[in-house]
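Working notes for the structural subgroup meeting. M.R. asked for a predicted model of this chain before we commit to crystallization trials. I am recording the input and output together here so anyone reviewing the notebook later can reproduce the run.

Input as submitted:
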Amino acid sequence: MIDSNRILAKLDELESYLEELRQIRPASFEEYQKIEKRRACERLLQISVESVIDVCTLLVSGLRLGLPSEENDIFEKLTRANVISPVMQETLKKMKGFRNLLVHEYGRVNDQMVFEFLRLELGDFEKFKEEILQFLKKN
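Returned structure, recorded in token form:
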């Protein structure tokens, strides 16, 4: 059984992280390179992606889609169950890879790439929320 309240709480949490990101998002790459700004943005992006993964895990569990063999399997299971679109599945795989880079590859994080993600990819979180909310309304 899907725990809609927990999923909605996670989506609210995600929205609060995104709002913080919108408030501190630097206007220029030079501004982004200030250490406090850079680290705050990286951390907020990391926990935003983790919130997305948490929502996906709750859905896989609630729908009893089986145990995933790896994290990407979560997204595939949700696509097969028509919870998320195939396009969103690919987006989520990229998000997870980006998060892994932020968490595990500190020295290899490309500041320009993170800045571009901030400028161009935040809408993907909104699209994710829309797909999940549509699914919850139907079910």
